[in-house]
Amino acid sequence: MKSKLLTASLLASALFAGLGMAPAMAQGNNNTPGIDQSQQAISARIQQGLVSGHITPSEAQALYQRDREIEAREMRYKANGSANPQERQQLRADLGALSADVERMMANNVYNAPPVAGSNTNGIDRLEYKISQRIDEGVRSGRITQREARRLQKRERAIERHEQAFKADGVVTQQERRQLRNELTALRDEVERMMRNGRG
């Protein structure tokens, strides 16, 4: 169990490095310490969700993008020296909405952990994970929009729910694995079509 968690933790670190998802940190003149602390707590919570499998890599990428946008707005507000009360209230509202979305994902009982050796859905788990990474790549390159990514992630979640339902009795049959592969192949083909026809 410890080695599985260590592997997941190392994987998360690699994802942060590879996808440029480092948590946003406010710098310079600081009259928003509470807001900065909230940002750091949200970033840590996203990382926790990614390691645990509650948040997929593509979902984490979208959440970190929102975090960076809030950070950029905070820097604009501080350009004249400090953020005024109305601006701080807006930042707190934005962070509250982001935090609520993170917690909603954390409360989801569907897991998208990296594949574990010995699982009888190991190949399916690998394919799921590769699709998540490909969606990330599409968002970063501009070939997949945030709206398209959300739709793809919704399909990801639906397939994951099917997998969890199939696993509920302790075994995934050959027919169930075939159904999951077919659903994932259709999703992968859709992602690749967007990558070919995208705007990047």
Summarize the structure.
The protein is an all-alpha fold. It has helices at residues 2-19, 33-52, 57-77, 85-107, 122-141, 146-167, 174-197.
**Number of helices, where a helix is a run of at least 4 consecutive DSSP H or I residues:** 7
Structural class: mainly alpha
**Biggest sheet architecture:** none
Low-confidence stretches: 1-29, 114-118
Instruction: Give the strand tally.
Output: 0
Shape: elongated
Order of helices and strands: HHHHHHH
Distance between the termini: 41 Å
Helices and strands, with pairings:
Blueprint: H1 2-19, H2 33-52, H3 57-77, H4 85-107, H5 122-141, H6 146-167, H7 174-197
Helix pairs in contact: 1-2, 2-3, 2-4, 3-4, 3-5, 5-6, 5-7, 6-7
Q: What this model shows, in words?
A:
The chain is mostly helical and 200 residues long. It is built from 7 helices and no strands. Helix 2 (33-52) runs antiparallel to helix 3 (57-77). The radius of gyration is 19 Å and the shape is elongated.
Brief descriptors of the model:
200 residues, mainly alpha, 74% helix, 0% strand
